Amino acid sequence: MHEEIASVINLYSIALDSRSWDLFDLIFTEDVVCDYCHVLKWNDLASFRAEFTEMHEATAGHQHFLGPPQIVVKGDRAWALTYGRFNLFRVARAEKVDDMSQGGAWYDDELRRTPAGWRICKRTARNFWWQGTMPQDGPHPVIVDSFPQLAREGKIGFLNALREQAGRPVAAAESVK
Known about the structure:
- The protein is α+β, with helices and mostly antiparallel strands.
- The chain is built from 4 helices and 8 strands; from the N terminus they run H-E-E-H-E-E-E-E-E-E-H-H.
- Helices cover 25% and strands 38% of the residues.
């Protein structure tokens, strides 16, 4: 079961980087809710796919790397947390810092078992850091790590499911000073 879930999550990079937008049907439910960095939000697969297609087809190319997901399964629902890294080229040859973006991110996914297999029904994506996204940011990486704060506030679905499975309070992370 964990392999099936990991396979669905890892197919995302392949679908995105090969621009095989039809493969999103094998990854997401029709009613998927996606929140990318508090800015880009979708409440259905059709609009998510259409806008992602438009955004990514406008680039010269990109490559996404995902680490192995951590997974909690409860019946026909699952939660996964996956770290990733990306490179995105705005022009074929990056000559200026903002011609290429790179960064590190995490995906907090909720999955549902459907008759066709496991599918992501809710995704929250956030950056740990990025570089080259905006010319005004300059050549150095911008750190935007909200992960510890969201974990302490009980806003990471995977961590909530993991703590529930272990019999611990949902927002149990403590700040160490």
